[in-house]
Amino acid sequence: MRKAIIGGTGVYQLEEARETQTILTAFGSVSYDIMSIEGQEIVFLARHGSKHALPPHKINYRANMMALKMLEVDEILATCAVGSMNDAFAPGDIVVIRDFIDFTKNRPQSFYEGDDTKVVHVEMTDPYCSNLRSRFLQRAGMLEIMVQGEAVYVCTEGPRFETASEIRMYRQLGGDVVGMTNVPEVVLAKELGMCYAAVGIITNWCTGIEGNSIEGHQIDQSMALRKNQVTKAFVDVLTNDPLEKSCACSRSLIVL
Ligand SMILES: [Zn+2]
């Protein structure tokens, strides 16, 4: 089986030698890089396109995830640039996403549209693969990469940023960080039975937190600082298979 890395904002390619390919899915075509690292084939997919041209609400999430499934990927690690509304997570920090709260509005969220006379639900006890999360934490520790903690991700529709009142509400609901892309990406991975985990790089304080406004150069600086560390740890995780896997990601569908 192959492994995959999805690069979010600021992570558009890996340093390793690469070869770009395209695959056609039922939802559209997807370009990706493929690399062989330590005998393991790793697919790299830039979520917003290699030139960061696709805004969060226009990303073809179903095409991206179906492409990975067709490429026989069973484990995916993704980066995401996030704003922080938790005082414990400052710009430049790295967090492992533990759970999400979904505030998206207009995105297809499922491969199962009921047209084959089945109703399919997907289990969300562990939206982010517990096995990949713990392997990332372990490998990051071995590489002396500081991980600040685990975070609840609030997904907004974007592309606008949140208002100060929205951030106050998200905070009260238990959110730690905000981004615009993890839903439906994590949900679709689960529907296809692939293990998926996401690591957030805090790029800014959310609107109204710390009294700062969000500036583009802050986001660029935080990403530049951390992206190589995070992708190095990803490659390390994906090229070292665990002795045993205890997650239930491949058995998450409930068919009624
Ligand atoms: Zn899993």
Automatic annotation (TrEMBL):
<keyword id="KW-0328">Glycosyltransferase</keyword>
<feature type="domain" description="Nucleoside phosphorylase">
    <location>
        <begin position="4"/>
        <end position="226"/>
    </location>
</feature>
<dbReference type="InterPro" id="IPR035994">
    <property type="entry name" value="Nucleoside_phosphorylase_sf"/>
</dbReference>
<protein>
    <recommendedName>
        <fullName>Purine nucleoside phosphorylase</fullName>
        <ecNumber>2.4.2.1</ecNumber>
    </recommendedName>
</protein>
<feature type="site" description="Important for substrate specificity">
    <location>
        <position position="162"/>
    </location>
</feature>
<feature type="binding site">
    <location>
        <position position="181"/>
    </location>
    <ligand>
        <name>phosphate</name>
    </ligand>
</feature>
<feature type="site" description="Important for substrate specificity">
    <location>
        <position position="216"/>
    </location>
</feature>
<comment type="function">
    <text>Purine nucleoside phosphorylase involved in purine salvage.</text>
</comment>
<dbReference type="InterPro" id="IPR010044">
    <property type="entry name" value="MTAP"/>
</dbReference>
<feature type="binding site">
    <location>
        <begin position="47"/>
        <end position="48"/>
    </location>
    <ligand>
        <name>phosphate</name>
    </ligand>
</feature>
<feature type="binding site">
    <location>
        <position position="180"/>
    </location>
    <ligand>
        <name>substrate</name>
    </ligand>
</feature>
<comment type="similarity">
    <text>Belongs to the PNP/MTAP phosphorylase family. MTAP subfamily.</text>
</comment>
<comment type="subunit">
    <text>Homohexamer. Dimer of a homotrimer.</text>
</comment>
<feature type="binding site">
    <location>
        <position position="9"/>
    </location>
    <ligand>
        <name>phosphate</name>
    </ligand>
</feature>
<keyword id="KW-0660">Purine salvage</keyword>
<comment type="pathway">
    <text>Purine metabolism; purine nucleoside salvage.</text>
</comment>
<dbReference type="GO" id="GO:0017061">
    <property type="term" value="F:S-methyl-5-thioadenosine phosphorylase activity"/>
</dbReference>
<dbReference type="Pfam" id="PF01048">
    <property type="entry name" value="PNP_UDP_1"/>
</dbReference>
<dbReference type="InterPro" id="IPR000845">
    <property type="entry name" value="Nucleoside_phosphorylase_d"/>
</dbReference>
<keyword id="KW-0808">Transferase</keyword>
